[in-house]
Amino acid sequence: MWNFFQRRRLVEKGMACGKTRRTVTESDLTEALECGWPIRVLILAAFVGGLALLIFTGHQEEPAKKFLLCLLIFVTAVAQLWINHPDTLRSNSRLTLVFGVLLIQLAAIKIVLAQAAMGRIDLQLVPLLVPYAFAPLVLSVLLGKNHGLYAAVFSSLWGALLVGRIDPIFLVISLITGFIAVYVTIQVRRRSRLIRAGVYVGIATWILAAAFGQIGPVVLESIGLTDWKMIGYQSLAAIATGFGTAILVSGILPILENLFRITTDISWLEMSDMNHPLLKRLSLEAPGTYHHSLAVANLSEAAAEAVGANPTMSRVCAYFHDIGKLVKPEYFTENIRPGQNLHDELTPTMSALIIIAHVKEGVDLALKNKLNAEIVDGIKQHHGTSLVGYFHQRALQQQNDARLGGKIMNMRAEDIPEVREESFRYPGPPPQTKEAAIISLADAVESASRSMERPTPQRIEDLINGLVDDRIASHQLDEAPLTMAEIRKVSESFRFSLVNMLHARIAYPSKREEKESSAASARGEQQSAA
Q: Largest CB tally within 10 Å, which of 78, 233, 396, 460?
């Protein structure tokens, strides 16, 4: 409260700006909820309690024995997360998502069994009404194929114990359909891919159920004794359950994405729409920056594919990485017209301050327009803590000139202001992800390539290698999960893309030159004939 009134007084005196820049803040409570071990223990205990409730309700044979087996499988599941997915185990929100989705699938199995026990569902339809692919589909799309396979394995094990007896046929059908669901959704960029996965799961369920004799039976000796009506119901149940599961997953994905702050490729593709208000403003108010962002997006997407990063995420983050330049577009090179450089009237320190501020202004605009958290991180990290070298050198040169002039005029050395390097550095942090590191390198490479007079393949390669080596030497890539081999793949991708983008074109003669050339050749023919 005291800070608020103090700021108001400074604004009234003209000593402060009334504008408050938006920032990303994480409270201690949020951090404790996300990373605290007591919450983690509570999540795991809640899942075990849910398992106990599912096993001990209803008419189960030897429920205590089954619960003990479920506990042993649970210990295995937690150990598997600790070994293969430690980041998921450390994130309470991800842990809630994984075990929450698994518990929902097990509850659905229990509901189907309960309805059959009450006589509301024919027992012959029960194996075909189980949503085998629910948890694998959800986790595969949200967290990746490895989490999808994890869900397929453990939902099958627990589901086989929930059935009246430990059913090997249920286990096999659940495993295979779960693996098929994961395989079809390895890379989902459109919701129609989910529907296709549901159809495949339904067909696989029908084929497996028929192979294990759970559809029919078909009496070959006497076709008339075959219950074709029941076979029709069973076939419809198998296909409809797979299709319905995919429809349900497609519907709840946006809710789960917002709830657990996860962005899928489907959402990234939707965010790549160039009609976003900020991108339209960029194309009109800062066209140079707009075209630079498009070029960076193309470079980043190709490089991300080369090293196994997320290409769609890289493209979208590259679109928005320089939106902070909308505040003062005329101060940035790509938007400066010849002979109108506003930096000529400013000191190097002020110029660097304006250049550096575009990162904070970009974060402010991104938060104001409710952009994705990954896009905000990309804006903050695309320059890391690098130095604004041009203006830093100008400041050092002016300092040296002032010292030389000061000696002539007998000025004291302490009267000449010192050039502090930290005043010419971006606030950072350095890139933390593969995608942010790729965008950072693509931004530097694309900007530098614009000033090349003769962009030959060798010159382009030398430029890229020099810039990448400089970023490595200045520790800008230390916190990014990129290996040296991957960095070289990124450099090679940049080289290939830039050579194609900057290749020289054939200079075709104009119509006037063609007429003059044809007239000259005609005169030459007349003179030779004479």
A: 460
Q: Which residues pair with 425 in a beta bridge?
A: 387
DSSP H helices, 118-143, are 126-129, 134-143
Kindly give, in sequence order, each residue whose CB lies less than 8 Å from that of residue 24, ignoring residues fewer than 6 positions away: 363, 367, 373, 376
Half-sphere exposure of 174 (CA within 13 A, CB side): 29
Measuring CA to CA, which residue among 29, 70, 35 is closest to residue 53? 70
pLDDT at 41 over 80: yes
Please say whether the beta carbons of 312 and 263 come within 8 A.
no
Domain 29-262 in CATH 1.10.1760.20? The answer is yes
Structure-token pair, residue 333: 């090179």
Count of beta carbons in the 10 Å neighbourhood of residue 115: 14
CA dist 9 to 13, 20, 22, 296, 512, Å? Answer: 6, 15, 21, 44, 70
pTM above 0.90, yes or no: no
Which CATH number fits the domain 273-384+428-501, given the four candidates 3.40.190.10, 1.25.40.10, 1.10.3210.10, 3.55.40.20? 1.10.3210.10
* DSSP code string of 185-207: TSS--SHHHHHHHHHHHHHHHHH
CA-nearest of 128, 85, 124 to 109 is 128
Predicted confidence (pLDDT) per residue in 330-387, tens digit: 999 888 887 788 888 888 889 999 999 999 999 999 999 989 899 999 999 999 999 9
Q: CA nearest 148: which of 135, 132, 160, 159? A: 135
Report d(CA 466, CA 454) in Å as an integer. Answer: 17
Q: Which long-range contacts (CB under 8 A, 24 or more apart) does 307-311 make?
A: 307/434, 307/438, 307/482, 307/486, 307/489, 307/490, 308/434, 309/433, 309/434, 309/435, 309/438, 310/265, 310/268, 310/434, 310/435
Query: 127-180, pLDDT tens digit by residue?
Result: 888 899 999 999 999 999 999 999 999 999 999 988 866 778 889 999 999 999
Residue 278 has pLDDT above 50, yes or no: yes
